[in-house]
């Protein structure tokens, strides 16, 4: 009858394995270690390590202050308004917005303080002959009409 082969494994010591890996790390990762030492020195030179230590020691106070500021009605409105402005910008055709930017630059961008003399009544009426003026006025009227409809739907200010 066959006898079983005895297999005796030495006990595994995880600390010893970690120690061996740690001894081999400087050789295997020499370049990365040098880069990390250089980065640490730059962080120290610029005072960022002290700043991080201070922020970590005061983290509870910082978080509490930030939460209190974020809970205020003004902050909530500001965040909501930022989201709405983002939606507005996303809904505008970039070509149209580029046209607006060029028009603003053409009319206001070349002066420190725009000097525009108010036109006389006849001069003002003669400007209505230009299609470009009538086109932009129609666009403004359409915007104002849509704004008026929204005001009517939403009611008065809260």
Major β-sheet profile: none
Number of helices: 8
Please provide the ordered H/E string of secondary-structure elements. HHHHHHHH
Q: Name the poorly predicted regions.
A: none
Radius of gyration: 35 Å
Structural class estimated from helices and strands: mainly alpha
Beta fraction of the residues? under 5%
| Total beta strand runs | 0
Shape: elongated
In angstroms, what separates the terminal alpha carbons? 95 Å
Kindly report the average pLDDT value: 87
- Percent helix: over 70%
Describe the structure.
The protein is an all-alpha fold. The chain has a domain at 121-153. Helices cover 75% and strands 0% of the residues. It contains eight helices and no strands. It has helices at 14-28, 30-45, 48-57, 59-71, 73-91, 94-108, 121-127, 131-154. It is elongated and about 120 Å long.
In short:
This protein has 158 residues and is mostly helical.
Quick tags:
0% strand, 158 residues, mainly alpha, 8 helices
What does the secondary structure layout of this molecule look like, with pairings?
Elements: H1 14-28, H2 30-45, H3 48-57, H4 59-71, H5 73-91, H6 94-108, H7 121-127, H8 131-154
């Amino acid at each position: 009858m066959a006898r079983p082969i005895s297999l005796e494994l030495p006990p595994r010591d995880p600390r010893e394995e970690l120690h061996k890996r740690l001894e081999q790390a400087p050789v295997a990762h020499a370049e990365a270690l040098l880069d990390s030492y250089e980065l640490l020195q730059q962080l120290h030179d610029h005072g960022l390590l002290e700043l991080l230590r201070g922020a970590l020691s005061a983290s509870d106070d910082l978080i509490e202050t930030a939460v209190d500021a974020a809970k205020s009605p003004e902050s909530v409105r500001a965040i909501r308004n930022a989201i709405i402005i983002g939606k507005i910008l996303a809904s505008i055709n970039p070509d149209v917005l580029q046209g607006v930017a060029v028009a603003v630059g053409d009319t206001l961008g070349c002066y420190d303080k725009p000097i525009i003399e108010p036109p006389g009544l006849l001069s003002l009426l003669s400007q209505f002959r230009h299609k470009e003026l009538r086109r932009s006025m129609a666009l403004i009227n359409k915007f104002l009409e849509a704004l008026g409809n929204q005001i009517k739907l939403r009611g008065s200010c809260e």
